[in-house]
Each structure stands twice: as structure tokens, then as C-alpha cells.
Amino acid sequence: MMRDLSFIKGKDLAEVVKEEATAVLNKATKSTKAAKVAKIKNEEQRLHAWFQSEAKAGKPVRASVQKRKLAAVKKRQQEKLLMRGMAKGTYYLIGRQLGLQVEAPSYAVKAVEKARSKLSNAVKGTVSGTDKYEVTIKNFSIVAMTYDAGGYRAFTRAMRGRMSYFQRRLQDGFRKRIKKAVKTKAKVT
């Protein structure tokens, strides 16, 4: 199918494959969910509510324990805010490894840059061949593949959607070539 599309478009097979890979990675990046800032910041409020419920129950939490727990929650919040968007960022990183222009929000790019060493073994994109050109995409990142982030689901939906778009473009391209050939009374190749 890719060869047919490259024939219709009059472009090199490698160029068509890269365009399609870029489209799939862009869609997967957009469809993958990022953590909500409000939900991350809500942890502190829940901790305060727990302190109050313990005090009402007659088991007040000592001030030093409260301070230590709040500090731990704030530290975790900062880490989560910095890592927010890592699932989206994995597809951005794969695109960069392939030399493609994949769009991602700035928070996702920051998360990937911060965790690049962790993601180096989990994410991979390679290009090989000339006659049988292929793009290999591997994403073993636990963050992206969790149910909440929906990275796997986003990628498979992007692939299926692109394939149906691809088939429509093929049909339209052949129709245009046939109409042009009939008008010029040329042979259809």
C-alpha cells in the first residue's frame, strides 16, 4: 500500500513512510493523556483533611509529624509536576530519534529531557533499508503504557485511523490517475 501511495504522489517511498510515521506519532502524542495539575495539587488538601479528621477523632497528629508529611507531599508534588507529560513525551522522543518533526506540549518536552537517561532503554525508533524501507517504533515505557495515560491505546488508534485515511487517499489517487488517463487516452500504469 505504501508503494502505491508513493507511486500516486510521485514521491520516494522513504519520504511517504516518514510522513505517515510523523502523522501517527503526532496523533499518538495528542491522544495520550497527561496528569491533571489540579489532581496532583489535591494531595496536599487531602492530607490536611486527614489531619483534621484525626483531630476530630481524638487522635491529633503531632506538629512535627504534620510538617514532615507535608514536606514529603510537596516534594512528591514537585516531582510529579516535572514528570507530567512523560507519556506524551515518549512519542516525541521516538520521533526525534527517527529525525521526524513530532509536536508535543512544552511540559512533555521538559519531562522527556529530564528523564532522558531513564527512557533511553525504554524507547527506540530506527530506520532501515532502502528498497524495503521500514521504520521501527518501540515503546516499553511503563509510564506511557499505563491505563490512565493510555499510550498504547492512543498509538493503536492513531495507526488504525491513519490506515483508513491512507486507504481513502489511495482510492482517490487512483481515481484521479484514471480520469487523467482517460482524458489523455493514455495507458494506466
Tell me about this structure:
The mean pLDDT is 79. With 189 residues, the protein is mainly alpha-helical. Helix content is 70%, strand content 6%. The protein has nine helices and two strands; from the N terminus they run αααααααββαα. The chain folds into two domains: 2-35 and 86-175, no CATH class; 38-83. A hairpin with a 5-residue loop joins strand 1 (123-128) and strand 2. It has a two-stranded antiparallel sheet.
Number of domains: 2
What is the N-to-C succession of helices and strands? HHHHHHHEEHH
* Shape descriptor: elongated
Determine the strand fraction and express it as a percent band: 5-15%
User: What low-confidence regions span 5 or more consecutive residues with pLDDT below 50?
Assistant: none
Radius of gyration: 25 Å
* Structural class by secondary-structure content: mainly alpha
Average pLDDT number:
79
Number of helices: 9
Distance between the termini: 15 Å
- Roughly how much helix do the residues carry, as a percent range? 55-70%
How many β-strands, per DSSP? Answer: 2
What composes the largest sheet?
A: 2 strands, antiparallel
Spatial order of the strands forming the largest sheet:
1-2
SSE layout and pairing:
Blueprint: H1 2-9, H2 13-31, H3 37-56, H4 63-83, H5 86-98, H6 106-114, H7 116-119, E1 123-128, E2 134-139, H8 142-145, H9 151-184
Antiparallel strand pairs: 1-2
Key words describing this protein structure:
189 residues; mainly alpha; 2 domains; 9 helices; elongated
Brief summary:
The protein is mostly helical and 189 residues long. The chain has 2 domains: 2-35 and 86-175, no CATH class; 38-83.
